Amino acid sequence: MVRITLPHHLRQLAQVGTEVELDVAAPVSVSSILDALEARYPMLKGTIRDHVSHKRRAFLRFFACGEDVSLDSPDSALPDSIARGEEPFMVVGAIAGG
Description:
By secondary structure, the protein is of the alpha+beta class. The protein has a single domain (2-93), classed as Beta-grasp domain (Ubiquitin-like (UB roll), Roll). The protein has 3 helices and 5 strands. The chain has helices at residues 8-14, 30-40, 80-83; strands spanning 2-5, 19-22, 60-64, 67-68, 89-93. The protein has a 5-stranded mixed beta sheet, with helices on one face. The longest helix is centred in the middle third of the chain and has 11 residues, at 30-40. It is globular and about 35 Å long.
């Protein structure tokens, strides 16, 4: 069971609590997590990644075990602690300003 945390605006859209738990088939990667998340919560399609290119939206970042994995290949396997649900996979809203 993979644990996923979402920023407030996406939690509101999906009508979920602080954390979501989903079964994700191995190997667990950013792509497989997002595929499972969008399948369970179709209202999130297009909010985290582009509909066509599947690229991450500009103001969202992905973290696994405290490390930013946003620029890694989305098909790279994530740490076992993410796959086992010991650590959450975090989708974080970036803050920009000037």
